[in-house]
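Sequence only, no structure available. Ideas?
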Amino acid sequence: MKTAASLEKASAPDAGSTARAGAVMAAGTVVSRLLGLIRTALLATAIGTSARMSDLFTAANDLPNFIYLMIAGGVFNAVLVPQIVRASRRPDRGADYVSRLLTLAAAVLLVLTVLATLAAPVILRVVTPLAGAELALATVFAYWCLPQIFFYGIYAVVGQILNANGSFGPYMWAPVVNNIVSIGTLLAFLTLMGSEQAQGHSPETWTPAQTVLLAGGTTAGIAIQALVLFLPLKRLNLGLKPKFGIRGMGLGRTAKLASVTIVTMLVGNGLYFVNLYVATLATKARDGLLAQDPPVLIAGLTNLNVAVLVYQLPHAVIALSLATVMFNQLSSAHAASDLQTVRAILSQGLRLTGVATVFGAAALLAFAGPLGMLFSESAGAAALNATIIAILAVGAPFLSANFLLGRVFYAGEDVKTPLKIQLILSAVGVSLAVVAGMSDPRLIVPTLAVAYSLGNVTAVVVSHLFLRRTIGSYGAGEVFDAHVRFIIAGMVAAGAGSALCWLFGGYDDGGYLWQSKLNAVVVLVVGGVLMSAVYAGMLRLLRVDELHQLTGSLRARFRRS
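Reply:
I predicted one. Tokens follow.
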């Protein structure tokens, strides 16, 4: 008699096929993220991470992304995918549906973008404690950045249409173009306007030309990222054209799903605005602390954002790529009412993702110092970045695990359960943010980082409990056992990486590591090779199969390419 475990293994999709399908996306994500890191390093050089201008631009530039996610992102990225997949099976391959969808999306996004841009001064007054010259300059930045909302939406909708038609690569490669444009404008800024260390940029000395290069260049990159996707869309030969009218699209059910999803995203991304307000409390206190004798440098919003960017790298490179492929598989399995395959896909995805994200967390912990140095304007700012990166690294694997758990609900068009989960997580997050806001200004951002990590852990526990009630046992015990082995291997690798940092003066204020960004890169390259070798060796010793499934399939894909 077959056991439940053997049945699930029999019905599981081939792990190699999933990894191979995600290989081209992972490659695009790796290139994009590498260029994104270069962009972030240049931005830190241009306006700093703990300087007066950095948090003003960061606050304004974050607004369009989170307003889009809060109002429309969940609908475009989760609810519409099953609808597009179903439409693609029609005789016209979904051409009529997609034409109407694109036209409707563009109209809605345009209205949302115009309204948000006009409301920029009000939004900034609500979500930040900024005032005076700082608020005025942040508002100017926001006027230039908020048009990104329209292009974020177009990028998401066109990307999901491509994914539903089996064209996964362009969606992950388009951000490469965005980063190239941004890098170009930042190099121009550094050449013409100088660096933070050399010029000491401030609201009092800032010029319109600097705004155009910094904020305008950023928005231009987002626009090109979206528009470039129309090239592969045209190659699908769907005969798309502007087409108004929603009758016959079957949007009645979609609207019901979307309304709940919008509430979920409002709650979830509303938490970000709470965190934004709390983080800018530190920004507001910074000038006073710097005026002390001796001056006290503290972490602010930009330090937190840089650390978040770094700690999300394992998630972005591996988890998002695999999840994009798996979401379509989960949608198809749910459509066929095949819960056994749903459980098998989820279990496989959690294990394949975990083998990479646990290593990523170990590397972040070991190399928080050189990573902090790479994305800062000085050794003092680097130390602040390193502290936040190390705190966030603990929650990195949980971030990816929860993302995959959440995809199962959306694939089954269950939008109410994610709302319940998000309400719980937001309550926890707001409580922790309040605690951070009541802390000493020097501890506000580190406390927020702790809140992020605790939130990721809590999210996995809560999502797991809800999911078991929805699809039954999905082999969580097997997933847990695999992660225990990943963690053991990661701890040994982190020990080797930390020892290397010590040899390079990572624990000495005047050590080699802290003297320049180039030195930090040397430590990262040498340390990365060392940690990878130790981790791979430990996984083989512990007889972990997931590494071979992941790397072997990726190598085969690249050889064929």
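The radius of gyration is 23 Å.
Hope that gets you unstuck.
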